[in-house]
Amino acid sequence: MTVPAEAARRRIVDLFLSSEERLLQRWTQLSGASPGELRDLYQALRTALSSEDGDFADVRGLLAELSRARVRQGHTPSDTARLVFSLKEALYEVAEADGGPEALRGFVWFSRLVDDLGLYTFESYTAAREKIIIDQTEQLLELSTPVVKLWEGIVAVPLVGTLDSARTQVVMEKLLQTLVDTGSEHAVIDITGVPAVDTQVAQHLLKTVVAARLMGAECVISGIRPQIAHTIVTLGIEFGDIVTKASLADALSYALSRSGVEITGAARTRVAVRAERA
Amino acid sequence: MSAPRELPIATNGDVVVVRQQVRSLAAEIGLSLVDQTKIVTAASELARNALVHAGGGRVLIEVLEGGRRPGLRLVFSDDGPGIPDVDQALTEGWSTAGGLGLGLSGSRRLVDEFDLVSAPGEGTRVTVTKWAR
């Protein structure tokens, strides 16, 4: 029993077009998506299937939009793909009710089409997710490099995480700009939160310090933990005449004394700690 | 404990992943904090070398057991242009990439065993091992 492909295709498209309400109802039931979304998709599919050239650009556009919306709502990519695939099941029921060999053969063709569209949602989903990740990386780059004022004339940059070229660029720009804006002459770069200092990180730090010096500011690098000191020495990196301190507190007191601020301890410091029970 | 695992080195992000993997394995086999930092830093240098000089490569991370002490072995390999003069490449301050020129020579000091095999046109393979004390 052979059925011409063209006839089979026509039959399934006819079935698809004629049983709109039944399909939509079953599709909504199977996928759990909103009827509005599915109706739009159905309309686009209908236009694409009825047109001579079989242009699915609109359908793809809609699917991409749907995928993006679903990424934001926190759906999994399988969920989104399943939404599309469930159309197959809905249409299969219609084809089975019809029972003709054309309808069943046509269904195989249609199901390949739906598979393609389903995979397409998967791709758009990944693309949308990747875009979010890239955006967040950029935001993080901005967020993770604050320049804070510690004292009149003293600013600090607490560095956290990986220091790559892009980060260093942002840090350096921000630091130099803040030095100008606040008229500070001392800057403390704190690397307590940098997990590993390799030659690249060291080189970036050195460049930042030299740039700050060119602007007349003095830099102190603080937050050098024992294991980092050990590694830097073994690597053979030399910080030259750059002042380094173990902690941010040391660096601050150094910068304060350099800028002529005298700290006189009060006769007695009283710290009252009171625990209250709720 | 765990089978050798291979990680790709194709982007700066991969260098970070290599560092994290090496750090967690180093902690797992009981390297001291200083030794952990040393092997992580060496891994960072060598991974970046593969990225900068060869456009990428891969690293095989292996936990060595069965000996008196556990160890961590990292094999960095790439299919890049290779190193024409290995002695020169290991010289302090020699850099072809505008760096400090301490990456390769410094890494050798950071680990217990260091082996570099390279020839022009045949890529580079660096094997480093750090033993727990």
Short description:
The complex is a heterodimer of chains A (278) and B (133). By secondary structure, chain A is of the alpha/beta class.
Present the secondary structure layout:
The complex is a heterodimer of chains A (278) and B (133).
Chain A: H1 5-18, H2 20-31, H3 35-50, H4 57-73, H5 77-98, H6 101-143, E1 148-151, E2 154-160, H7 165-182, E3 186-193, H8 199-214, E4 218-222, H9 226-235, E5 243-245, H10 248-258
Parallel strand pairs in A: 2-3, 3-4, 4-5
Antiparallel strand pairs in A: 1-2
Helix pairs in contact in A: 1-6, 2-3, 2-5, 3-4, 4-6, 5-6, 7-8
Chain B: E1 5-9, H1 12-28, H2 33-54, E2 57-64, E3 71-78, H3 86-89, H4 103-110, E4 113-118, E5 124-131
Antiparallel strand pairs in B: 1-2, 2-3, 3-5, 4-5
Helix pairs in contact in B: 1-2, 2-4
Domain STAS (chain A): 144-255
Organism (chain A): Microbispora siamensis
Protein name (chain A): Polyvinylalcohol dehydrogenase
Question: Care to describe what's here?
Answer:
The complex is a heterodimer of chains A (278) and B (133). Chain A is α/β, with parallel strands linked by helices and 278 residues long. Chain A has two domains: 5-138, Orthogonal Bundle (Globin-like); 148-258, 2-Layer Sandwich (Transcription Regulator spoIIAA). Chain A is built from ten helices and five strands. In chain A, strand 4 (218-222), helix 9 and strand 5 form a beta-alpha-beta unit. Chain A is elongated and about 95 Å long. Chain B is α+β, with helices and mostly antiparallel strands and 133 residues long. Chain B has one domain (5-131): Histidine kinase-like ATPase, C-terminal domain (Heat Shock Protein 90, 2-Layer Sandwich), CATH 3.30.565. In chain B, 38% of the residues lie in helices and 26% in strands. Chain B is built from four helices and five strands. In chain B, strands 1-2-3-5-4 form a five-stranded antiparallel sheet, with helices on one face. In chain B, helix 1 (12-28) packs antiparallel against helix 2 (33-54) and helix 2 (33-54) runs antiparallel to helix 4 (103-110). Classes of the chains: A alpha/beta (278), B alpha+beta (133). At the A-B interface, helix 8 and helix 9 of A face helix 1, helix 2 and helix 4 of B. Chain A: Residues 144-255 form the STAS domain. Chain A: InterPro entries: Bact_StressResp_Reg, RsbRD_N_dom, STAS_dom, STAS_dom_sf. Chain A: Keywords: Phosphoprotein.
